[in-house]
Design goal:
With about 270 residues, the protein is mainly alpha-helical. The chain has a single domain (about 20-265), classed as P1 Nuclease (Orthogonal Bundle). About 55% of the residues lie in helices and about 5% in strands. A 3-stranded mixed β-sheet has the order 4-3-5. The protein has a two-stranded parallel ribbon with strand order 1-2. The chain is globular and about 50 Å long. Bound molecules: zinc ion. Zinc ion binds near residues 80 and 136.
């Protein structure tokens, strides 16, 4: 391999180690977005089609905020999460930094999207951010924090590989369980019962964050019964997957249902 390539690969490897994870991995976002799209009213689907660039679907743009979004709005990284201490009783606005957080940004972008007088470009951007952030707030470690950047600084062994706790929840569990987007959507479909959908369809953004906080406590307090969050170096195996997988599934399904509700409500 030419030396320049080797050097590029080395740089990429270092960057991937130091750059924080921002979100459910791309697959998690696509899965929730697919669930949402299947639940859109014709009116909402039409309005979204008109707002997106020709040929784009919501699935195509649901990861925009993790990529181009950072170039378009360079200081938007804090918008993807909120660090709520694990022992806090619930989310509070005091945890939302000056530059905003995932909770405040969902509320801000839903207003812009619903404002027919806002410029088209601005509404389009609001849609891209809103889709992504409704999903991010459902990732437990985008809310629960042990002063370790939502698990980014807690190095663990998962399924025999070195990773960090945040990444375990963003993507490692999804990849470990396996399956393409279709398989995942089929897996989650049985969760979309009328009872679940009804229960999930009330509640504020703050309550969605509180649910993530409760799930994050389970994610950190391992093995079960631990009173303190796991330290770096913890080895996570199949018993951890058995605890986490149902939570991941429920959060992805809830995000999809709630995203559809948001969009159907905005484009009435
Ligand atoms: Zn994100």
């Amino acid at each position: 391999m030419p030396r320049v390539f080797r050097r590029l690969i080395a740089v990429a490897a270092i960057l991937s180690l130091v750059s924080p994870a921002h979100a459910w991995g791309p697959q998690g976002h696509r899965i929730s977005t697919r669930i949402a799209m299947a639940r859109l009213t014709p009116k909402a689907a039409g309005a979204i089609r008109e707002l997106l660039n020709p040929g784009d679907t919501l699935v195509d743009v649901c990861n925009w905020a993790d990529h181009e979004g950072h170039d378009v709005v360079p200081d938007s990284a804090p918008w993807h999460y909120v660090n709520v201490p694990l022992d806090a009783p619930r989310y509070s606005a005091k945890y939302c930094g000056e530059r905003g957080c995932v909770v405040s940004k969902i509320k801000e972008f839903r207003k812009i999207l619903a404002d027919p007088k806002a410029p088209r470009k601005e509404r389009q951007r609001a849609l891209l951010f809103l889709v992504h952030f409704v999903e991010d707030v459902h990732q437990p470690l985008h809310v629960g924090d042990n002063r370790d950047r939502g698990g980014n600084n807690t190095q663990v062994q998962f399924a025999g590989k070195g990773t960090n706790l945040h990444r375990v929840w963003d993507s490692d569990i999804l990849h470990h369980v396996g399956g393409n987007d279709n398989v995942w959507v089929q897996r989650l479909t049985p969760l979309l019962t009328p009872e679940h959908v009804k229960a999930w369809s009330s509640g504020s953004v703050e309550e969605w964050a509180d649910e993530s906080l409760i799930a994050a406590r389970k994610a950190y307090m391992w093995p079960p019964g631990s009173r303190t969050p796991m330290p770096s170096g913890t080895i996570l195996g199949n018993d951890y997957v058995r605890m986490a997988d149902p939570i991941v599934r429920e959060r992805l399904a809830q995000a999809g249902v709630r995203l559809a509700n948001e969009l159907n409500g905005i484009f009435k």
